[in-house]
Amino acid sequence: MAARHWWLFLAWGAIALSSCTATESPSGNENALSLGIALAQTGNAALYGQEALQGVQVAGELFNQAGQIKGHTLRLVIQDTGSDEAGAVNVFQTLINRDRVIGIVGPTLSQQAFSADPIAEQAGVPVVAPSNTARGIPEIGAFISRVSAGVDVVAPTAIQAALEINPNIRRVAVFFAQDDAFSRSETEIFQKAIRENPKLELVTVQQTQTTDTNFQAQINATLNLKPDLIVISGLAADGGNLIRQLRELGYQGLILGGNGVNTVNLFPVCRRLCNGVLVAQAYNPENPDPMNVKFRNAFEAKYRQPPSQFSAQAFTAVQVFADSLARLSQEKNLSELPLANLRQALNQEILKGVYETPLGEIRFTPEGEVLQRFFYVGQIEMSEDGQSGKFNLVKKVERQPQQAQ
Fold first, then answer.
1. What is the Cα–Cα distance from 309 to 327, expressed in whole angstroms?
2. Do 130 and 154 form a contact (C-beta atoms < 8 A)?
3. CB-based contacts of 61, cutoff 8 Å, min separation 6
4. Would you put residue 374 in left (φ > 0), alpha (ψ -120 to 50) or beta?
């Protein structure tokens, strides 16, 4: 059954969202269902976590205004995981045992998920990951799902888009942050797509660190090989610095970035030198689908800027919970369900649904892997002064979701 479009704007008389952080007290509303939000607000992943939190807050407001969950509202219990595994583990334990949440949106990084998700799995708490794209995330357990498509779909699409822009590309160089689980996973897919294309030759693979700021040695070694395309898997800070230094050292060819550079937080790092970079995307803000237009309008009204992929995926993660609870509330009195039973029923409902989201149509396999219908390639266009930029939509690819088995 397709998800209903519940985020139509309704009168302000509807019950407003209440949220809490680690330092605030939860609302006393007995009809509020607590949904844990476990995102990085500090550390090197904070740029992504902060963007995700913006999407979460827009989602909470819209869904609560719509009153879609019969007799209940959502209360967002927001906790900062930091950017390491220990922080995510501590937050998951707190949300599950102290705050008694019905489910969790998070964490920000795949590396955190491999440590924290088993805690939710053991407790029988559904998790919907908004930005975990490394291989093996849904396989952690029956209660673990994600709305962030694996890079095995996005990366080959982006390679093809680069070839359409410049059919003369032959020699490809790859950089990746070897200390980040997502970047290691993503680069494997990029490298596989490059090797399987008979037109392309992978001339070098350069390892970096997310904490690196100087890439001169790796860049000079790479430029000596005269690549036509450079593919980067890293985060916003290191990826942005790498892009800037590539241009400063004379590289003029195409640059293709992965999911980690699909953020407006890249722009202050490489500024006007970000211009022309291609980005593999599971979301593009210029997608004209009606559901994305509604989300984008609400987001821009609140934050005065277009949403990023991390905001859109986090919004979608909350939507999955809200739509599933809405369906479940039509069948059961949620107030009468013991918490463990509610968590179990909610997880089953999540896996059954079909959702029309800012990402397009999604559904899940029985294992919790997202089946997403549309993928995108964007190209960065910076203003002349380098102070602002946008992701122009270059390519939109439709993929028919496979049927759940």
1. 27
2. no
3. 16, 17, 298, 302
4. beta
Q: How far is CA 347 from the centre of its chain?
A: 20
Over the stretch 52-99, which tens digit does the pLDDT of each residue have? 999 999 999 999 998 989 999 999 999 999 999 999 999 999 999 999
Cβ–Cβ contacts within 10 Å for residue 29, how many?
12
Burial profile 235-263: b = 16 or more Cβ within 10 angstroms, e = fewer: bbbbbbbbbbbbbeeebebbbbbbbbbbb
What CA–CA distance (Å, rounded) separates 312 from 26? 26
CA separation for the pair 278, 254 (Å, rounded): 8
Under DSSP, the state recorded for 16 is P
Quick check: 5 pLDDT over 80? no
Q: Which DSSP category does 34 fall into?
A: E
CA–CA separation, 32 vs 252, rounded Å? Answer: 55
- Cα–Cα dist 74/32, whole Å: 5
Phi, psi of 237, rounded to the nearest 5 degrees: -70, -55
Q: What is the DSSP string of 283-323?
A: --TT---HHHHHHHHHHHHHHSS---HHHHHHHHHHHHHHH
Average pLDDT, the chain: 89
Do β-strands 103-105 and 32-39 pair in parallel, antiparallel, or remain unpaired?
Answer: parallel
Residue 217, Cβ density class (10 Å: 0-12 exposed, 13-18 middle, ≥19 buried) = exposed
